[in-house]
Amino acid sequence: MNLGLRMGRGRYACFLHHDDVWFPGRLDAARVALGRDPETVLFINSSWFIDASGARLNRWHCPLPEGRSPTPAFVVERLLVQNFIAVPAPIFRRDVALQVGGLDETNWHSADWDFWLKMASSGPTTYLNRPLTGYRVHPVTATWRGTGRAADYRWQMDRVLDEHIAAWESRGPIRPSVRRVARFSVEANLCLASCAHGHARGWPALMPHFLALGPRGWRRYFRDSRIVERVAARLRAGVLRWA
Questions:
Q1: Exposed, middle or buried by CB within 10 Å (0-12, 13-18, 19+), for 54?
Q2: pLDDT 10s digit of each residue in the chain, 243 long?
Q3: Domains in the chain and their CATH numbers?
């Protein structure tokens, strides 16, 4: 990916893994949106979760207003809670991607989350709530298999979170509620990874932390994590197991 960014010549770039898809009309829609707001650094559309055969499982939305988001901080605060961006969904400024250093090649699981946070911090984000891309859910992806290494998985998520919270606190304080919900989301992701590998453990210890978030924290978590959409797609695809 980084080599492609360096070798590219266009103003914009995108990532499309071999198992994900663009749907008809995606490029035209992006061209219109970027032509309307050429200062956009990060353009995102909503996506479909699809299974191994390409069947649509359910929608994957971003918790953003349609059109340009109010500020970079607005996007970053929500993105700190969870990476809600499907890899094939963004189109982004290639020069800005190079300026922020591209993807972290030492991070096998959360490099895209780190990259979207860096891009969203760098300028305007525009969101189109049309499902123009497909993110494939199946149990043999390299990143999904890697979630079985729990200690490494936690370290990578904590590292991204710590670095970006510190970066934003140098500009101004991160709201404590955002920090609490983001930390909880890491723990919830670890529990989900455990379920994906056939070990439904950790949930009883997680519940007191969930209850401590309170109504506002619950709302933020469910809105920004897209947990219902993510879990529903993986259950339908047979990726999550509760045994």
A1: exposed
A2: 999 999 999 999 999 999 999 999 999 999 999 999 999 999 999 999 999 999 999 999 999 999 999 999 999 999 999 999 999 999 999 999 999 999 999 988 899 999 999 999 999 999 999 999 999 998 765 455 544 466 788 899 999 999 999 998 888 778 888 999 999 999 999 988 877 666 666 678 889 999 999 999 999 999 999 999 999 999 899 877 654
A3: 2-237 (3.90.550)
Q: Please, is 199 exposed, middle or buried when counting C-beta atoms within 10 Å of its C-beta (0-12, 13-18, 19+)?
A: middle
Closest CA to 20 of 44, 51, 45: 51
**Cβ atoms of residues 125 and 84 within 8 Å:** no
Q: Is 98 helix (H, G, I), strand (E, B) or coil?
A: helix
Closest CA to 63 of 81, 49, 84, 47: 84
Query: Considering the entire predicted model, what is its pTM?
Result: 0.92
